[in-house]
Amino acid sequence: MHINLLGARVDAVDLAGAVEKVTAFVATGRPHQVITLNPEILYRAQQEPELLALINQADLVTADGIGIVWAAGVAGTPVPCRVTGIDLMLALVERAARERWRIFLLGAAPGVAEEAARRLQEKYPGLVVAGTQHGYFKPAPVAAGAGETGVTEWDVVEQIRAAKPDLLFVALGAPRQEKFIARHKQALGVPVAMGVGGSFDVIAGRVARAPVWMQRLHLEWLGRLLREPRRWRRMLVLPRFAWLVWRKARLGK
Ligand code: UDP
């Protein structure tokens, strides 16, 4: 089941439901995109029709954060709970280790994806890491072989394609990671690709996640703001997002 929130299709699933959907995607062998949608991106999509279209072309969209869960409730079409990028990634990695799915980690600063992979393999014995690649490569449209030095976006796509993973986690920050996946989905040929924001930094131990009590009180966003004050500017869209949702719900009645 799915709902419509400010023009975006959002799946009304919990974590277990999302893992089941991904399992079905892997079984088909065809490329799928998973998006964990947060209010910042949904707000931005109101001004960027291409971004909204991209969200609506994804195969699974979960409510990432309490802001989306709240908005769904205000709109009269509740979703069961939030399914964040890092929670879904960890649940999928656990399933991957059991099912022998190959995973690929793309993104974050040099060394971070490797360290995240090492820690995941420690935690989930048997996990097959098909490859890792940092996220500071030259973006398209740099033509392949155009005399550029360093890794280009084309090299990265080729590297992933050759590694033949079942799951691709992309940590380039939203919405760049979502655009990367959508742009290269067919060329990559990976059954499931999803953006995970700063998750590699957390898994590699570079950034701490908010304490569990804060997560339970739905204050994870506050924890992040306290740790990374530079985020305050990005968070200014949250009241605007809330106002938009509330106004739309009132006008719709
Ligand atoms: N990042 C990257 N390449 C870039 C810019 C950022 O790999 O050109 C990585 C960055 O190192 C970090 C992640 O993308 O690991 C973004 O994390 P953030 O928490 O900002 O994600 P968001 O909340 O924006 O989705």
Question: How would you summarize this macromolecular structure in one to three sentences?
Answer:
This protein has 253 residues and is α/β, with parallel strands linked by helices.
How is the secondary structure organized here?
Blueprint: E1 2-5, E2 8-11, H1 15-28, E3 32-37, H2 39-47, H3 49-57, E4 60-63, H4 66-74, H5 85-99, E5 102-107, H6 112-123, E6 128-133, H7 153-163, E7 167-171, H8 176-188, E8 192-195, H9 199-203, H10 212-216, H11 220-227, H12 232-235, H13 237-252
Parallel strand pairs: 3-4, 3-8, 5-6, 5-7, 7-8
Antiparallel strand pairs: 1-2
Helix pairs in contact: 1-5, 2-3, 2-13
Describe, in plain words, how this protein is organized in 3D.
The chain has one domain: AF0625-like (Rossmann fold). It is built from 13 helices and 8 strands. It has helices at 15-28, 39-47, 49-57, 66-74, 85-99, 112-123, 153-163, 176-188, 199-203, 212-216, 220-227, 232-235, 237-252, and strands at 2-5, 8-11, 32-37, 60-63, 102-107, 128-133, 167-171, 192-195. Helix 1 (15-28) crosses helix 5 (85-99). Uridine-5'-diphosphate binds at residues 107-109, 135-136, 171-174, 197-198, 200-201.
List bound small molecules: uridine-5'-diphosphate
N-to-C span: 23 Å
Describe the largest sheet: 6 strands, parallel
Integer tally of domains: 1
What is the string of SSEs from the N terminus onward? EEHEHHEHHEHEHEHEHHHHH
Task: Quickly list its features.
alpha/beta, 6-stranded parallel beta sheet, 15% strand, 13 helices, binds uridine-5'-diphosphate, two-stranded antiparallel ribbon, 253 residues, Rossmann fold
